[in-house]
Design brief:
Number of strands: 2
Structural class: mainly alpha
Number of domains: 1
Radius of gyration: 17 Å
Mean pLDDT: 95
Largest sheet: 2 strands, parallel
CATH architecture: Orthogonal Bundle
CATH superfamily: Hypothetical protein, domain 2
Low-confidence stretches: none
Strand order of the largest sheet: 1-2
Helix content: 40-55%
Distance between the termini: 15 Å
Number of helices: 10
Length: 192
């Protein structure tokens, strides 16, 4: 797809382009995938997403394929092993937050029936379609991501600040921030 018009942030890197084309901004409703995205967005804090994307398979291997039921009961030795693994981001607080967040995730599932039902409630269960023309228009956070962050923190989650929550919303398709000239923006899809 060399002549495909894409959002500029992914251009020039095959892995990034594939992620942009096949995942980013597509509504995700699987609790397992939503958990993985939330954890990876937390690890991304202070780093570029391509760094996380390049290590995603290593993260999956270290964190039990993001099986939150297993991670909620992770023993201390597993946390220590993760801290010593050079293939992932070795930030102690971020690694410890995986177990904490797995437990909070399960509590939300028990309260709401699914994490999907809970989290998509922030956008009234329908993706927000933005009409941005350039990257500088994309906000780092929104009122909704601020509210999501506060709510998740009250539920016991860590590494869920408003910017992380907004990146999660973009990744999970709760908000579609493909630029209007990108082939993945619905406006372009209607014209094809």
């Amino acid at each position: 797809m060399t002549d495909t018009n894409r959002c500029p942030w992914c251009q020039g890197d095959e892995l990034y382009e594939k992620y942009h084309d096949m995942e980013w901004g597509i509504p995700e409703h699987s609790d397992a995938r939503l958990f993985e995205l939330l954890i990876l967005e937390g690890f991304q804090a202070g780093l570029s997403w391509i760094t996380i994307l390049r290590k995603r398979e290593d993260f999956r291997a270290v964190f039990e394929q993001f099986d939150y039921k297993v991670l909620a009961n992770w023993p201390e030795e597993k946390l220590v092993q993760a801290m010593q693994n050079p293939k992932i981001i070795r930030n102690r607080l971020k690694i410890e937050s995986v177990k904490t967040n797995a437990r909070a995730f399960i509590e939300i599932q028990e309260k709401f029936g699914s994490f999907d039902r809970f989290i998509w409630g922030f956008v009234a269960h329908s993706p927000i379609l933005n009409q941005f023309h350039s990257l500088k228009e994309l906000p780092p956070s929104t009122d909704i991501s601020e509210q999501m962050s506060k709510t998740l923190k009250k539920q016991g989650f860590r590494f869920v600040g408003p910017t992380i929550c907004y990146a999660f919303m973009q990744a999970s398709g709760m908000v579609n921030d493909h630029l209007t000239n990108c082939f993945r923006h619905p406006m372009q899809q209607h014209e094809q």
